[in-house]
Amino acid sequence: MTTAILSALPEEQSSLVQHLSHPQRLMHAGRAFWRGELQGRPVVLALSGIGKVAAATTATALVERFGVARMVFTGVAGGVGEGVQVGDVVVASEYLQHDMDASPLFPRWEVPGYARSRFACDAALSALLSGAARAYLASAEGQLGLNSMGGQVPATSAAPRVHEGLVASGDRFVCAASEALHLRGTLQAAGHDVLAVEMEGAAVAQVCQDYGRPFAAVRTISDRADDTAHVDFPAFVRTVATRYAEHILLGFMQKL
Ligand code: SAH
């Protein structure tokens, strides 16, 4: 049973590629895929690219061309939920597309043809990801990861935390405090309590639903989706998020 590990950006994937045994690079649909083994188990590492369409293409290729049995997404996201801070980790329990709106034909955020706005992640895979994330953050190495930002992470008294809940995807890099507040507020008023925003997960969740493949996702919070989101972002991905992805996914693969 092959496990696919998707990331949006090459930086998010780079540390995992270095751990692959018997690595084999294949091009398909204009994308590079890495086949190999992690912790002795068969995997395909794939880049989704940025945004929902690119992610859906990669996820479809992973099923049709590589025959993967399950998919796990690892990447970064903007924290919008209360207390979801830079350096925290969010494990998605469900996904929603915040830019889906076919109203008044369908209720806002409902995906036409699916009679739902939320797509659930696989509970067992998500529990393994949460366990691996908690173990990493509690370790000395996990503390080091955040400190290596050299002051770029706002000094919060709280240690990094793992959150589990709803994550929203859309084809927008949310980088204004007013927009993040509005997005969270309108969703919350409709009963959708969103923890984080990113640009790919909901698309992969929908493809996995179509093909009956279990899906789970872990996102390191790189920014607060506010006016400084673009400033924090590149350095954070390079220095912290790659390390989180490496340790959390290796821990996950060991328990799988
Ligand atoms: N700097 C990158 C672009 C990154 S786009 C480049 O030049 O290639 C942002 C990526 O991080 C997306 O893959 C998205 O899933 C995630 N992300 C992180 N913070 C986000 C935010 N505030 N809003 C939306 N997506 C965010």
What labels would you give this structure?
28% strand; five-stranded mixed beta barrel; 38% helix; 256 residues; 10 strands; binds S-adenosyl-L-homocysteine; 7 helices; single chain
What topology emerges from the helices and strands here?
Elements: E1 3-7, H1 10-17, E2 21-28, E3 31-38, E4 41-47, H2 52-64, E5 70-79, E6 89-97, E7 118-120, H3 123-138, H4 140-147, E8 162-169, H5 177-189, E9 194-198, H6 201-211, E10 215-223, H7 229-255
Parallel strand pairs: 1-4, 1-5, 5-10, 6-8, 8-9
Antiparallel strand pairs: 2-3, 3-4, 5-9, 6-7, 6-10
Helix pairs in contact: 1-7, 2-6, 3-7
Bound molecules: S-adenosyl-L-homocysteine.
S-adenosyl-L-homocysteine binds at residues 8-9, 50, 75-78, 173-175, 197-200, 222-223, 225, 229, 233-234.
